[in-house]
């Protein structure tokens, strides 16, 4: 085993290969607070990549209702239970959050899936702790849709006193998921055929269909269960990050890098995808005005999904404000309280950057802020609030302006001659 540095857990960890890092890394931020579970993202992916025979149960992009839903069912509960069995009582974080980008969430003192493997829990040959879901677990991608946890944690027993922030007594939330194109992919680590590779130019993780022999070691190892086996071709498949679009080869894009289909289709405007600069040790290089760098490392409102698993996922989430904190801390690590606090009372820059979501399908490489006039002063949940109508400008790969937008959304008044017409 080699030792690699994982900044999300604030320490070195075991990994079967040496750390090799791309120049830029495919990454994304999803704002859970805005997702309405319309499944437009799910269907955009399905109709692009997985509409063929043998792919009926394959959903590279999915949206599940937490805490009961999951695709495949119970994927997160199962891997967390396996880790707990491997290291009883030891899966804990230490040190608290810090200003250092090398350990922003403190240090995870437990075992990752690369460190907890072993003959008791995994077959002898396994390089990664994991399990193979049953066919039944893959069968119902949207099981328990909209099912809330009731008052005092009892399902179906709804709170009758009404709900208020900071925490609701009856709650659920939507978790939109794709492959995280991890920096230390478990799928790649587990493949005995070396059929899985991470591209040096953008960190996208792909399965070479010619090399794969369908052993399903990747399906067993991926803790997020984002590689899937296709019975009629007898090889595994996974999210390809719409790489032709990211490369700028979509006919629509005129050579400019475009966001994936699931991002572009998002009705709730919860999604932003980009390519972040990576340093020599795999951590994100400072890029103060890249919107994803800002959300993850400066504002710290977006957090990785289950960072304790150890794959260094490149999917980040703005956590839902109304959900009990222990549940969220388990899912997103120790940065949850700070993230919710900042998102609930956004400063001037954060409010402007949040306007960048889904104004264009082009990948944003940089943003700039132009200050505007004060438009509101008041009080919200006991705090003084001042709003400014700032303009935020997005730039593309060649530093060309992609679009500009303001904090205050424009109001369009329909002309009288069009009243009551569609
Ligand atoms: S989410 Fe799973 S399939 Fe995707 S790169 Fe990570 S380990 Fe591999
Ligand atoms: S398209 Fe956007 S809002 Fe709709 S389910 Fe997907 S992530 Fe949520």
Helices and strands, with pairings:
Layout: E1 2-6, E2 11-15, E3 24-31, H1 40-49, E4 62-66, H2 75-86, E5 93-94, E6 107-108, H3 135-138, E7 173-177, H4 186-190, E8 196-198, E9 205-207, H5 217-221, E10 227-230, E11 235-238, H6 243-246, H7 261-264, E12 271-277, H8 291-298, E13 303-304, E14 315-318, H9 325-332, H10 336-344, H11 348-354, E15 366-370, E16 374-380, E17 383-388, E18 391-395, E19 401-406
Parallel strand pairs: 3-14
Antiparallel strand pairs: 1-2, 3-12, 4-7, 5-6, 8-9, 10-11, 13-14, 15-18, 16-17, 18-19
Bound molecules: iron/sulfur cluster (SF4) (2 copies).
One iron/sulfur cluster binds at residues 179-182, 185-187, 205, 222, 224, 226-227, 238, 311.
Explain what this protein looks like in three dimensions.
There is one protein chain. The chain is built from eleven helices and 19 strands. By secondary structure, the chain is α+β, with helices and mostly antiparallel strands. A four-stranded mixed beta sheet has the order 12-3-14-13. A three-stranded antiparallel beta sheet has the order 15-18-19, covered by helices on one side. The longest helix is centred in the first third of the chain and has 12 residues, at 75-86. The model has no long low-confidence stretch (mean pLDDT 94). The structure holds iron/sulfur cluster (SF4) (2 copies). Residues 179-182, 185-187, 205, 222, 224, 226-227, 238, 311 line the site of one iron/sulfur cluster.
């Amino acid at each position: 085993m080699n030792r690699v540095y994982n900044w999300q857990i604030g320490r070195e960890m075991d990994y079967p290969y040496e750390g090799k890092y791309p120049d830029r890394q495919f990454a994304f931020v999803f704002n859970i607070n805005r997702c309405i579970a319309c499944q437009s993202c799910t269907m955009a992916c399905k109709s692009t990549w997985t509409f063929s025979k043998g792919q009926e149960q394959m959903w590279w992009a999915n949206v599940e209702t937490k805490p009961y839903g999951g695709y495949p069912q119970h994927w997160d509960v199962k891997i967390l239970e396996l880790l707990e069995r491997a290291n009883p009582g030891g899966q804990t974080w230490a040190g608290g959050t810090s200003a250092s980008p090398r350990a922003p969430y403190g240090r995870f003192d437990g075992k990752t899936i690369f460190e907890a493997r072993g003959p008791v829990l995994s077959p002898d040959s396994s390089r990664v702790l994991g399990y193979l879901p049953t066919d039944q677990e893959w069968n119902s991608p949207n099981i328990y849709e909209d099912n809330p946890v009731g008052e005092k944690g009892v399902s179906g027993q709804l709170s009758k006193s009404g709900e208020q922030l900071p925490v609701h007594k009856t709650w659920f939330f939507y978790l939109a998921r794709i492959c995280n194109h991890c920096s230390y992919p478990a799928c790649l680590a587990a493949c005995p055929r070396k059929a899985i590779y991470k591209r040096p130019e953008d960190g996208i993780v792909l399965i070479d269909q010619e090399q794969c022999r369908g052993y399903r070691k990747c399906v067993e190892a991926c803790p997020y269960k984002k590689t899937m086996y296709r019975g009629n071709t007898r090889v595994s498949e996974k999210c390809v990050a719409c790489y032709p679009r990211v490369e700028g080869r979509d006919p629509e894009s005129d050579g400019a890098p475009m966001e994936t289909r699931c991002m572009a289709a998002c009705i709730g405007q919860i999604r932003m995808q980009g390519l972040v600069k990576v340093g020599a040790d795999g951590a994100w290089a400072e890029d103060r005005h890249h919107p994803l760098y800002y959300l993850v490392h400066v504002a710290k409102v977006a957090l990785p999904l289950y960072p304790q698993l150890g794959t260094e996922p490149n999917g980040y989430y703005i956590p839902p404000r109304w959900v009990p904190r222990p549940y969220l801390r388990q899912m997103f690590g120790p940065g949850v309280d700070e993230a919710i606090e900042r998102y609930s009372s956004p400063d001037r820059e954060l409010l402007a950057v949040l306007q960048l979501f889904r104004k264009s399908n082009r990948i944003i490489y940089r943003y700039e802020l132009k200050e505007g006039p004060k438009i509101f002063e008041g009080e919200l949940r006991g705090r003084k609030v001042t709003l400014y109508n700032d303009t935020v400008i997005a730039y593309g790969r060649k530093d060309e302006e992609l679009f500009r937008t303001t904090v205050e959304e424009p109001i369009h008044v329909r002309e009288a001659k069009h009243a009551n017409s569609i």
